[in-house]
Each structure stands twice: as C-alpha cells, then as structure tokens.
Amino acid sequence: VFNLAKKTKYGIKDFIKTDIMNQYKHVLVVGGCGNLGKAVVRAFRDTWKVASIDINTNDEAHFNYTLNENFGSKSSLEELKDKLTGFSKNYDSIISVAGGFQIGSVQDPEILEKWRLMSKLNVESSLLSAYIASKTLVDNGLLVFTGAYGPFKQPTPVMMAYGAAKTAVHGIGLGMSEKEDIPLDSSVVTILPPTMDTPQNREAMPDADRKDWVHPDQVASLLRMWSDGKNRPASGSFAGLKNINGNVIPEFL
Asked: Which residues belong to the active site?
C-alpha cells in the first residue's frame, strides 16, 4: 500500500489541511488594522480566508504580516511574498485600504515632513499592493486601491501633501488597469470615499455635517460584493462613494 505520509516529508493531515484551505477564496487586506481595514476583514472572514498586512496585528484575520519601520528593501519584499504565498499561493482579491490624512499648505514649514508621511502611508502602501498583485492575483481577480474623492475632483491647496499623495494613488490605479503585470481578465478599481464616519473623525470634527459621511462597514460590504463577482465595476473605474439616504452608492467617474 502506498503510504503518502512516509513517501514525503508531509503527513496526511498536512495534505488534508492544504486541500481544505484551497476550497476557500483568499483576500489580502493591506492596512487591515485601520477603521476601514478592520471592517473589510470582518466582511470577508466568514467564508473567505483573510490575510492582513499592517504595522499591527488584526486578531480577526486568519494570517497577519506585521511591517516594521524599516520595511521596503528588496529582501523585505521577497520575504513578504514568501510569507503570503505560504498562506495562499494566489489571492482572489487584494484590497489596499491603508492611508493617512494631514492638513497643511505649501507655506507650512513641516510640508516636506508631511509629504514623506503621506507618501509612506498612501503611496507606498498602494505600490506594495500592486507589487503583490503582480505576483499573486488570480485570473478574474480584483485589485482595489483607496484614493480620495476631494483630490480627484478638485485642487487641494490646504492639504497639499495629502492631495499630492492621493493623486499619486490615482495614478497607480490607472497604471495597473493597463494590466501589463496582472491577469488580463482581472479588474482594477479605485474607490474614492468622502469623509469616513469613524470615532476619530467624529472627535476631530464634532460640529461637522455628517450627512455625506460613509461608514466603514458599508464600504466593506460593497467591496465584498464586488469580490464575490456581483455588480463588479469595469476595470479602470474610479468609484466615488456617495451616502444616499443612508446607503453607500458608487458613482463612477
């Protein structure tokens, strides 16, 4: 009788575990510990296997890769790819929701510091997502970037570093939609949320009119629907997210 456990370095249990894992779809959430990232992890984890990349660990994800402050070298990218493909060889959906926000015009003496921070949080995280997609995104997969509605629609002189960083993210979305480095039948969508309804934003803007704000859970549900292949936008789309009567409705721009 052929004994698989003896003929390989793996036991029968390892093969059963691998087979069960392959029955699931896999999503990678870049920025899985932010308000939106946590909502996305929750929206998928019931029937998908979820990997999270962030500077912190999300206990609701099935796999975590924690970035350190020196991340970005060739060797660190190769290590990340090896760890992610160890969890799943391919990913059905890669969703980049990492980012940050800063106010400041070009007159601000901290403008370069703010640019470096905005670039790291918004641009580098998007490039990282694109890199991983080029290695692991499946046929008919979905790649999502998080831009911003304001910088897409109009100049942002009072938040120059943030606006410039988000404009760069929009450029990354456009570049990836050419599909030079990902499967031709995959989809690339850049969401453009307005202000997110989070505890931090409520505290920072207590007198703001919140009727146009969108809740992270609603955005996450939309991303889950697209990842499941339902009402998925055309590749290359920019989706402005509008709060209409308490519902998040995409407006394609």
From this structure: 162
